[in-house]
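[Discussion] Sanity-checking designs against the backbone

I'm trying to build intuition for which residues belong where. Below is a structure token string of 298 positions. I'd appreciate it if someone posts a full sequence so I can compare it with mine line by line.
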């Protein structure tokens, strides 16, 4: 009988000790500032853990999640009084994979408490609802004929080719005298000079040519520096190549924002405010600095 009472007492003490190991009122939750983002756009997660003073525990998020990359982590903010201890942290993520993805649940260290999972849609720039859809037109037959002006242009081209041939033959003799054609500037110096020579738009009609020129300067640098056929690339193609070239997610996200702004002006009839013109120019310069320091991928 005494042994039975002893076992019962030890069992009660063990249960009390187990109950004290996990503080009462312990909870953890996570929230996001949006449920849908564009490729390369940031999303902010807010992690909140509530406990009792003297039992600080927090959620651990790995550096890499399926389909998501961690950009930044804020410091853990602490709010405490005699009955409550609240810990909070903001984590910024991004994704370069289009589709519907789940941010997994996170476990509170040392407990069986987990947060909710969150669904996020990652996509491209959506079409405007007012955009007009145009039907495919039938093929229009064209009569074959050689206009007189084509004959004239051909004669001019032939004359130009003869002049170029003569100059080429003369240049062979000039090589021995030390005369050389001026070489092209290196890709980075050429892009920086072109960017400095580009004037800010004054009228509304100048906005689209201005952003088209910014896009051309960046793509020509990528073509010369990395050997990419950027004239055939879409923004998505560029981001795919940059994912293997620019390893830092924050820098890659900044370049993606610059490319999206240029596409919005060129194709979506978006007219940014005057204060964004200089900012767009500075973003392209920053992208050039980042890419200039990157070793080309063979």
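Best answer:
Here's mine. Compare freely.
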């Amino acid at each position: 009988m005494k042994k039975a009472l002893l076992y019962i007492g030890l069992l009660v003490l063990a249960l009390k000790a187990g109950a004290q190991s996990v503080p009462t009122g312990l909870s953890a939750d996570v929230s996001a500032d949006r449920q849908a983002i564009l490729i390369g756009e940031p999303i902010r997660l807010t992690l909140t853990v509530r406990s009792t003073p003297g039992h600080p525990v927090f959620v651990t998020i790995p550096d890499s999640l399926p389909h998501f990359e961690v950009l930044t982590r804020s410091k853990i903010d602490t709010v405490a009084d005699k009955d409550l201890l609240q810990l909070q942290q903001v984590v910024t993520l991004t994704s370069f994979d289009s589709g519907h993805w789940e941010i997994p649940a996170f476990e509170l260290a040392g407990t069986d408490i987990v947060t909710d999972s969150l669904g996020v849609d990652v996509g491209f720039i959506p079409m405007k609802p007012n955009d007009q859809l145009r039907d495919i037109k039938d093929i229009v037959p064209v009569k074959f004929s050689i206009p007189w002006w084509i004959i004239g242009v051909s004669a001019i081209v032939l004359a130009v080719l003869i002049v170029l041939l003569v100059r080429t033959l003369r240049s062979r003799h000039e090589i021995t005298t030390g005369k050389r054609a001026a070489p092209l500037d290196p890709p980075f110096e050429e892009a920086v000079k072109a960017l400095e020579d580009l004037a800010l738009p004054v009228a509304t009609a100048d906005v689209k040519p201005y952003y088209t020129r910014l896009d051309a300067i960046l793509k020509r640098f990528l073509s010369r520096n990395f050997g990419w056929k950027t004239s055939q690339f879409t923004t998505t193609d560029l981001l795919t190549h940059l994912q293997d070239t620019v390893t830092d997610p924050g820098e890659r996200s900044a370049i993606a924002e610059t490319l999206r702004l240029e596409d919005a002006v060129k194709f979506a009839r978006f007219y940014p405010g005057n204060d964004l013109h200089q900012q767009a120019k500075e973003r392209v310069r920053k992208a050039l600095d980042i890419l200039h320091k990157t070793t080309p991928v063979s």
